């Protein structure tokens, strides 16, 4: 997690520890300066004394709670540094971030109650409306009371939770069921909780931010039953595209029954989800023709009519009826098959490369929204390998993939390995900007034929390929990215209706009372959608500066080129060029 700027942390600390307590007094002073409040001027000293007497204990409880939680976390960090033999102190930037995080216990609903109470207080003073002032006062008393109690209890809840975890009295376990699925299959996330302390007046919260590709979120509310018996909470995943997903650690915390405050006591419970790519059918449309007698890698050589001799035998049940020689069958009085004398086919040594190289921003924000493109490439990659192996060719699959620990490495697999190993490597493949095609080919060494499955935006580098032929299965980026994006507001709202745009300013996007309706949540969603939109625009800008010439560059090299046309059931390969050495696909 990125550490915020020290100035931002100082502002947050100042507001949560001091500014929040002074806001009612400041509102009263502003009202006295600009409004006619002579009717309540006589009671001002009494109100000020009551405010200080009520707010000072709240402020004191906040300071005690924040101090204790900060000391606990700093002690944990020092212990971790001691294990690594690191004697350095915690930087001031991180210290301020820790204090700011522990001081901020308000939820969006808590902020709403605070500012609504202040507005009502100001309006009651200006309108001389006693009932409205009573409502504002009761709301602010409830708010500050819950904030003080939560801040004070949170310190003891954190330490108590850690002690119970150390003694193994608390168990929080997370799992995916199943942990490995095929693309498109359903999955369920489960949390098993046992012995977790839940104080009266609070709920246990289990939250986590899942990857955007899964289209889901983790948010569970558990009652006090987990203190005495084991409880299991589960949630379905809305989507399951290909990939390796690391989930967690989840945030374990408490929220009061009014939903005004929320505290985090631990980060625990992690698990992995691996979604394997599917094998699809490949349909070759109008393949490049070749007169070479040597067999191609995927398509067979085109042979002109000849006078080959045939052998004949009697038809047996289960034989291919298309080979029946009807004229000879009529003359002989029995069904007869013709068997052409075939030329012995030799196997080839083929290297099959997954080209997921995106220079400059392959591991950055420009890869946002390209996951579905890589999914199609991986499916074609493993399906082509299965087709070649079934024909007796020796195949080596090569790709740059996650090693399971977040590190990017080049890996290769033999075609003799189980196909689930191919799917596993395909699930871990990702866009990257470290290993281009020359590095991937050097990993394998010499081969007879080479095939690259690619959707690259830039012309390829010179290949140190020493084999006979090289073939490209190319997914044009202009097709992969789809039609140009509409204006951003249409993408954000999912509609082009002007009425929907106007209604979005007054209509709540989620159910009434949901935290996602707050301005902060809406702003966060806006930032995420804007980042995706800008990433797509940057990629389209790269298309204008050279990606359209990639096909021409590949054909100009003398390589065989096929255009990939993905489909929901089968992927089509359309031949564009046979290359200078004959077709290889």
Cα(first) to Cα(last) distance is 46 Å
Largest sheet: 8 strands, mixed
Any idea what the CATH architecture of the largest domain is? 3-Layer(aba) Sandwich
Shape: elongated
Radius of gyration: 33 Å
Oligomeric state of shown chains: single chain
Q: On the 0-100 scale, what is the average pLDDT?
A: 80
Number of helices: 15
Strand order of the largest sheet: 11-20-19-18-17-14-15-16
- CATH names the topology of the largest domain as Rossmann fold
Per DSSP, what share of the residues sits in E-state strands of 2 or more residues? 15-25%
Number of domain units = 5
The total beta strand count reads 20
How are the SSEs placed, and which strands pair?
Layout: H1 6-34, H2 38-41, H3 44-83, H4 92-103, H5 108-127, H6 130-166, E1 171-177, E2 180-182, E3 188-194, E4 202-208, E5 218-222, E6 231-236, E7 243-247, E8 250-256, E9 262-268, E10 271-276, E11 281-285, E12 310-314, H7 326-332, E13 336-340, E14 349-355, H8 371-390, E15 394-402, E16 408-414, H9 419-428, H10 437-444, E17 449-454, E18 469-474, H11 477-480, H12 488-493, H13 498-503, H14 519-544, H15 550-556, E19 560-565, E20 570-577
Parallel strand pairs: 2-10, 11-20, 14-15, 14-17, 17-18, 18-19
Antiparallel strand pairs: 1-3, 3-6, 4-5, 4-8, 7-10, 8-9, 12-13, 15-16, 19-20
How would you describe this protein?
It is built from 15 helices and 20 strands. With 585 residues, the chain is of the alpha/beta class. The protein has five domains: 6-166, no CATH class; 171-276, Immunoglobulins (Immunoglobulin-like, Sandwich); 306-345, no CATH class; 348-483 and 546-577, Rossmann fold (3-Layer(aba) Sandwich); 488-535, no CATH class. An eight-stranded mixed sheet has the order 11-20-19-18-17-14-15-16, sandwiched between helices. A hairpin with a 4-residue loop joins strand 19 and strand 20. Helix 1 (6-34) packs antiparallel against helix 3 (44-83) and helix 3 (44-83) runs parallel beside helix 6 (130-166). The relative contact order is 0.08.
